[in-house]
Write a structure and sequence with these properties.
337 residues; mainly alpha; two-stranded antiparallel sheet; 15 helices; 4% strand; RmlC-like_jellyroll
């Protein structure tokens, strides 16, 4: 991690050793001075002044460091956490912005090279009568030319005629093809990682369907199995046991208490209980799903479990099938005899 220097002396010393001379010379309005003198000036001095301005353009490369700022990365991650439902959209948006930025740089390069050559007669700027056009018009045509090259859909308004335009076109096409390949690869990985839990569920359910076909299960049984998977997993598969096992004990208890908050609130059994007792109980709970007409406990069977109803209803039946009572959310039953 780089250190932030706030000492004016060190900043001044570093600046004097780096860009001070170039900034000083390139800040002198030589163009206006030459226009005032206009005559008697040597052309070599004018070219020298333009060379100093070109040197200053190299400072633009230092802006690339902005892409690696930890603060910018942290802000992007915070956006993804705040808009959790749209984190993939934010990533795709950032990728599109990066592609547009590369297109912007390419468009500036398309116009910069002819400008440094004083707009020769065979350059695309002169051919399109853009030398004296408004800067917005110049930028629009340069960006259009760059995007046409990068997307390999044409050469802009006119095909290249000079050697310089040919080289610029080739460089632009190569950069565009490279960016396109990177964009497709990154977008593919991004789409695949958007909802890994749902993809795992689909793969798991596909195996279940193949198993049911292999065993030639009846249609009504297949329907019940499909309904069970929909109720049990709700379209997502997580290895929750492994995830919780990797957490520390305090963090694991906090997560489980949060996941079971609705159950603890609904069950009167936990209303006035000691919080440590509640935590000890909920950490040992297992989530189970029962479908309509499922028998959970039969009369005379050995009771080794206690059930808390998180959602739904449970009918207590006699041996003749008569409903004695109906248990609802928050109720509990079972236990060892």
């Amino acid at each position: 991690m780089a250190d932030v220097v706030l000492d004016p002396k060190q900043i001044r010393k570093r600046y004097f050793k780096s860009w001070f001379v170039v900034d000083l010379l390139s800040s002198i309005p030589l163009d206006f001075i030459f226009l005032i003198i206009n005559e008697g000036i040597q052309p070599d001095l004018y070219k020298l002044s333009r060379s100093l301005r070109i040197l200053k353009l190299a400072k633009i490369l230092s802006l690339l460091k902005l892409l690696r700022l930890s603060r910018l990365v942290r802000y992007v991650r915070q956006w993804e956490e705040i808009f959790n439902f749209a984190s993939a959209v934010i990533r795709i948006f950032n990728l599109i912005c990066m592609m547009l930025l590369i297109g912007h740089w390419n468009g500036c390069l398309q116009f910069l090279v002819p400008m440094l050559q004083d707009f020769p007669e065979d350059c695309w700027v002169t051919k399109n009568d853009l030398v004296d056009a408004h800067w917005a018009t110049q930028y629009t045509w340069a960006l259009f030319k760059a995007m046409s090259h990068m997307l390999c859909i044409g050469y802009g308004k006119r095909p290249p005629e000079s050697i310089t335009d040919l080289w610029l076109t080739m460089v632009s096409m190569i950069s565009g093809a490279t960016c396109f390949a990177l964009f497709i690869g990154h977008a593919t990985n991004l789409i695949q990682s958007m909802d890994t839990s749902r993809r795992q569920y689909q793969e798991k359910f596909k195996q279940v369907e193949e198993y049911m076909q292999y065993r030639k299960l009846p249609v009504h049984l297949r329907t019940r199995i499909q309904d069970y998977y929909e109720y049990r997993y709700q379209g997502k598969v997580f290895d929750e046991d492994n995830i919780l096992e990797e957490l520390s004990i305090p963090l694991r208890e906090e997560v489980i208490n949060y996941n079971c908050r609705s159950l603890v609130k609904a069950v009167p059994f936990f209303a006035n209980a000691n919080p440590e007792f509640v935590t000890d109980v909920v950490t040992k709970l297992n989530y189970e799903v029962f479908q309509p007409d499922d028998f959970i406990i039969r009369e005379g069977s050995f009771g080794d479990k206690m059930y808390f109803i998180l959602g739904g209803t449970v009918d207590v039946l006699t041996a003749d099938g008569e409903v004695v009572t109906t248990l609802q959310d928050g109720a509990y039953f079972g236990g060892k005899k």
